[in-house]
Every structure is written in structure tokens, then in C-alpha cells.
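Appendix B. One record, verbatim.
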Amino acid sequence: MNNAAETPQTGWRGAWRAAHASVTGVPRWARAVAHVIPFLVMPSGIWRIATVVFDVAGDGRQHSAADPTAGLPDPVYVTFLSVFSELLAFTAIGLVAAWGEVFPRWIPVLRGRRVPIPAAVIPAAAGATALTVLWTTLAVQIGSGVTLQGNPLPDDFPTIALHGWRLGFFLAAYAPVLLWGPLLALLTVAYWRRRRIPVLRTPVPDATA
């Protein structure tokens, strides 16, 4: 009976719940923001995969090993990039979850130890800054129709080459990522304040329970 009751916690469902469970003291808004961020990034990944693998952009180009990117066939590279971006977005949940405050048991040496505040805040702040600059710059380029150097956007740039529903698909897919950096910055500040200010709360649960 006990084993049957504990099974959901040791399988995929248990791991999913443990990864997403917020610790005591996290504001409701921070919990919501952390869980929304991966969904803001997902549409751009879907666009990239749909464009390169299924030619949604309608450019008719053959994306194969004949024109590799980073030494990989374009479909493989773009799929990897999209999955990596989604995993990177998922780390925002660590700013509200137990595994962002206590190293999980699968990390050698550090398992069970408290995560130092700078170890979480510095990478998160740097990421938030880089993402904000990157996507804001891209939005300015699209809005102005020129590169940062003042040159016209290339003919194969999506907002130049695409039309109709394809252009709408592209804009709808990438518009949400403009919020990624600012929202991550808000989460970082909330995490820093929560960890710095002692509060009465229950112990942080095991991140892998």
C-alpha cells in the first residue's frame, strides 16, 4: 500500500510536480510569471522548426547537410536550438521552486546544500539583461527596417520576405519573447529579496522528492 501511494512521486508525474512546486513565501504573481515564461518562448521554437523542417515560410529551400549550420544539418541545428531555448526558459521556474534554493540530489558533491544567492542571482540577472537587449534590438530593427549599422534589412529577413499569414505567424511567434528578459528580471529581484530577508516559513522541500 505504501509503495503504491509513493509511486506517483517517484515517476515522471512526481518529478514534474517537484520541479514546478513553489517554495513557501513566493508571491503568487512571481509563481505565475515563472510558469508563463516557458510558454512565451515556445511559439518562436515552433516557428523555427515549422519553417526549417516543414517549409512553412514557403521559400522552397532545401535545408539539409549540404548547407550546415554549426556543423549540423539545418533541421537538426534548429531543433536543438529550439529545445535548448525552451530548457533555458524553464530555468526561470528555479527562481520560485525548491531546486532553486537547494541543490537537487542528482548533483554530485553539492546535493542537499543551499544554493548561494549570488550563484542564482548573477546568472539570472545577466541573462535577463542579455535577453532584454537582444530582443529589444531585434524589435527596433524590425520597426525601423534597418540594421544597427543603418543598412536596410537583407531581402531574406522574415519581415521583408514573408507576407500574409506567414508574416503574421512570424510576428505572433516572436512578439512574446520581448517579455522574457523583463519578466526574468522581476523574478530575479523577487528571488534576491526573498532569500535576503529572513522570514518564518516551513523548510524548503527536497527538490527531487
